[in-house]
Amino acid sequence: MSKLRLTFACGPYDRTLALRDGSIEPEGIELNYIASQPPDIFWRMLQFNEFEVSEMSLSNYVTLVSADKAPFIAIPAFPSRVFRHGYFFINTEKGIKTPADLKGKRGGVPEYTMTAAVYMRGLLQHEYGVKPSDVEWVQGRADRLGRKLPPDIRLIQAPAGSELGDLLERGEIDFMMTANNPLAFRRGSPKVRRLFPNYPEVEKDYYRRTKIYPIMHTVVIRNDVYERNPWVALSMYKALCRAKDYAYHLLADMGSPKVSSAWLQPLLEEERSILGPDWFAYGIETNRPSIEALLQYTHEHGLTDRRLKLEELFAPSTLRDIPLSEGQHV
Fold first, then answer.
1. Which residues contact residue 69 at a Cβ distance below 8 angstroms, ignoring those fewer than 6 apart?
2. Which pLDDT band holds residue 326 (cuts at 50, 70, 90)?
3. Which DSSP category does 314 fall into?
């Protein structure tokens, strides 16, 4: 019996490398892995439904599910997740000392509905008492979904051709929250610094208290593919889990480190001590606090028509977590 040929668009991650180079193959599937950057993948999938399987913005997917407009269904594999405290940047001349000082300020954000921004607004609101309506927002690019926001949200578009990092450096915005370090910061501008200079310690404390490890992206399967071949969901989920476990084993080989880091071993030991042996976990239960937080924030921020239940997001066959022992490559 011939295998089902599917195209999978996803970032070039260590945790998916085994799928990309063919070391691991999903059962019953011949996978054509297209390595690209997430913003491009999201645009092509949201606008044209281009790929059979793809990486997808978790917040955008949640918004579509709430409106019963999702052209795909997710599996609980999360190829991108990032703690976000280190991605708040401030202009040093605006008198901002603490997160509470962001009230009444002008804040830049690449895209108001992007997952990173959702988690960061939730963080400001629930940890520091700064509501989304307390800030005037300047958006760097067009929204992917064209979602109408609540009337108390003040959002304007940045001038065409401008970079939010430059606006921050010039003082045209007071702070910025983003998914990457702005160029002004990377250039060493004295006018731009982090809101949380000690962000690793703050993030570790945040995780210990909340068990929230922000999830940026999930993996989705186009509805027409899933409806004809529902088994694809579990096959892809298991393969993604095995590929991640394969990456763990490569990283654990300290005799020949696979990452250009002088202190990789203590870093991994610390991550295991805080996050557990599966420190980049897929599945439902381990990630329930992180996903429930996103569902809460998207609803509070007016990005969903109703408060979704976690189980509505994922293919039913993938709701059981897969232990490490089931996916281990060696």
1. none
2. low
3. B
CA–CA gap between residue 287 and residue 215 (Å, rounded): 9
Question: 308, exposed or middle or buried, with CB in 10 Å at 0-12, 13-18, 19+?
Answer: buried
pTM to 2 decimals? 0.95
What is the per-residue pLDDT across 239-284, written as a single tens digit (0 to 9) for each?
999 999 999 999 988 889 889 999 999 999 999 999 999 999 999 9
What distance in Å separates the CA atoms of residue 286 and residue 5, rounded to the nearest whole number?
Answer: 31
CB 299 within 8 A of CB 307: yes
What stretches of the chain show up as alpha helix (H) in DSSP?
A: 17-20, 38-48, 58-66, 115-128, 164-170, 183-186, 199-210, 223-228, 231-252, 264-275, 288-300, 324-327
User: How many C-beta atoms surround the C-beta of residue 3 within 10 A?
Assistant: 12
- CATH number given to 4-81+215-241+281-309: 3.40.190.10
The number of angstroms, rounded, from the C-alpha of 141 to the middle of its chain's C-alpha atoms is: 18
Domain 85-210 has CATH 3.40.190.10: yes
Q: State phi, psi for 287 to the nearest 5 degrees.
A: -100, 5
Task: Kindly tell me the sign of the dihedral angle through the C-alpha atoms of 177, 183, 185, 189.
Answer: negative
3-state secondary structure of 62: helix
Q: Which residues contact 149 (CB under 8 A, 6 or more apart)?
A: 112, 155, 301, 302
pLDDT tens-place string over residues 294-314: 999 999 999 999 999 999 999
Where are the domains positioned within the chain? 4-81+215-241+281-309, 85-210
